[in-house]
Design goal:
Elements (H helix, E strand, L loop, with lengths): L2 H16 L4 H13 L15 E7 L3 H9 L3 H8 L3 E6 L13 H13 L5 E5 L6 H7 L2 H8 L2 E4 L5 E7 L6 E7 L8 E12 L3 E3 L1 H6 L23 H4 L4 H11 L7 E11 L7 E4 L2 E5 L2 H11 L8 H9 L10 E5 L2 H4 L9 H4 L10
Parallel strand pairs: 1-12, 2-3, 2-7, 3-4, 7-9
Antiparallel strand pairs: 1-11, 5-6, 7-8, 9-10, 9-11
Helix pairs in contact: 1-5, 3-5, 10-12
Length: 364
């Protein structure tokens, strides 16, 4: 890290501290979700008239994360109050750095939080293929935790609540265990430290999906290999809903209860192609932040050159009208312009299947 960037962050810290079946199956979907007691939004909830999204760019990964958060300094401090901060990285698996949130991105977020006087921070995750603690060590989070006195938490061991999702093959509600720490808005402030990545089931994975699907927990010993076997049960496959229709609807439905309070999307090095694990790197050197996660994800899609309307779960959230702002005309970009940093990501080869949610379900 350059001396100039270190000095820039140091000066900012100092200044801040100072101051299924065809039509029948489709018809059953909402009924199944109603039976599953999916969270309902507040009656008067509505998308904000205008949402702000910050876009920062540069050669220092930690610095652009910090810079992306500066415009929201007062609002974030007020929203956190006395809550514990739960910093949720995107560690799909524990042994592939490109698929995971980089430690430098987390460092920039933590330095920002310290600058506004917030130091009660945990980094919490439940990866698919092993212990979160092993992943933390592999990705250098242990050194970060020691440097900033941050606690590392394995969500699989921190208690859970039971919610319900559907499987598109039977259109019945299925119980799923989700991390309790991500469902306690009275005491926890959740930050999604996501990445710009393609995804072979839903197209792209940004701030919302990082929280929703990442909230599913597993038993000790589950997911010890990439096939998900090794003893014990993992609830992550349950969330995937059996296919394109199920996973998109489940992410949308659960977003009423499971969503970030603050979205930070790292695009310093994104992933294209066969994400979220086996894709290839894209050098972009940007970072997106917003207190409106849907607006952040909309901007993330634009930066990837992906048609937002083709992403099922995000389109559902936009149509609901109560999850955030998805209209680019009502999103104020602070910092750089999207067009100056946008790239066209290579899409997963299963794109036709990924976008099949737009069509009515047909009998198999």
């Amino acid at each position: 890290m350059s001396t100039a960037c270190q000095n820039s962050r140091r000066n900012f810290l100092k200044a801040s501290l100072m101051g299924g079946a065809a039509a029948v199956a489709a018809a059953k979907l909402p009924l199944a979700m109603a039976a599953a007691d999916v969270a309902k939004p507040a009656p008067n909830a509505a998308a904000p008239a205008v949402s702000r999204v910050s876009l920062a760019a540069g050669d220092d990964r930690a610095q652009i994360a910090l810079d992306s958060l500066k415009p929201f300094q007062r609002e974030i401090a007020a929203a956190i109050g006395t809550k514990r901060i739960v910093l949720k990285p995107n560690n799909v698996i524990i042994d592939k750095p490109l698929c995971a949130t980089d430690a430098k991105n987390l460092e920039g977020i933590i330095e920002f939080l310290h600058s506004i006087g917030k130091k009660d921070i945990v980094i919490a995750e439940s990866p698919a293929n092993g212990s979160a603690m092993d992943g933390f060590a592999n990705y250098g989070y242990d050194k970060l935790a020691a440097k900033y006195n941050v606690k590392l938490v394995n969500l699989d061991n921190e208690g859970y609540e039971v919610l319900y999702v559907v499987n598109e093959h039977d259109m019945q509600p299925h119980a799923v265990r989700v991390a309790k720490m991500l469902m306690d808005p009275a005491n926890n402030y959740v930050i999604s430290a996501a990445k710009l990545k393609t995804h072979d089931l839903v197209g792209i994975t940004l701030s919302l999906k990082n929280i929703v699907v990442g909230s599913g927990i597993k038993d000790s010993g589950a997911g010890l290999n990439r096939q998900g076997s090794g003893g014990g049960r993992s609830d992550k496959p349950i969330m995937h809903g059996g296919g394109t229709y199920g996973i998109n609807y489940n992410i949308f439905s659960l977003s009423a209860k499971l969503h970030p309070d603050l979205a930070v999307i790292d695009g310093y090095e994104g992933m294209e192609g066969t994400g979220p694990v086996n894709g290839t790197p894209v050098s972009q050197k940007v970072c997106v932040a917003s207190m409106d996660w849907l607006a952040a994800d909309r901007v993330g899609a634009e930066l990837m050159g992906v048609d937002f309307t083709k992403i099922g779960y995000l389109s559902y959230c936009a149509k609901a009208g109560d999850r955030g702002q998805a209209d680019l005309g009502k999103i104020q970009i602070v910092g750089g312009a999207i067009k100056d940093y946008a790239k066209t990501y290579q899409l997963p080869r299963q794109w036709e299947q990924i976008t099949s949610w737009q069509k009515p379900m047909v009998a198999s």
